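Entry type: protein chain
Record version: 2
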Amino acid sequence: MRIKKVLVSQPRPTGEKSPYFDIAEKYGLELVFRPMIKVEGLTAKEFRQSRININDFTAVIFTARTAVDHFFRLCEEMRVRIPDTMRYFCTSETVALYLQKYIVYRKRKIAFGKSGKLDDQQLVSAMVKNNKEKFLMPVSSINHDDMKVLEDNNLDFTKAVMYRTVSNDFAPDEPFDYDALLFFSPAGIDSLKKNFPDFDQTSVAIGVFGSSTAKAVEDAGLRLDFSAPSRENPSMTSALESFLQKQSPE
């Protein structure tokens, strides 16, 4: 299996320092960064159909910067004024700091976890400490977060779909002549099947990140050639390089 051209179904890394570029140079690869999926925000009209009144809530749980963007976008479109008393609980410091794009950052109103996960102990402790709050959680239409930790702690929360993940369709004249495809979510596999229903994998290698993405490959009847994370390959780039090394042992 000769790998020369690789599709990375993510946006191109910002800056010029990335393991992807090092691998491309080392193995003489042509890397094409081309997302297979894209995010669309619900319109104000669509969101109103959920009958969720944002002003009924006293706290918001954010799991991603995308959720932050679409929450404040919808508030603006619907002319919802967010009170200064609103509290924010974020799964990571990165997401918490991103709030500065929309609000004045006050530590007393913002809490965050260390792991980036909803069940992070530090984050859960902060929410339990404020268990009298009524929590709103902006999510995608294909949200995979496990809400059990919120239920187990008897928190009053409501999920609100504010954006959706859809296929980033290929143009009719857009080439699809790759030797390897890298996927990072089940939605990417869905997009592949939607764009190329007669896709014949044959000698095309498929690499994935995450167990749910690996299962999506299996469910689609495709062959999985390498994956991450694992003890040996914690990242997609390390998994890709390990695979390339096996293809060219010399």
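Comment: Residues 58 and 133 are 6 Å apart (CA to CA).
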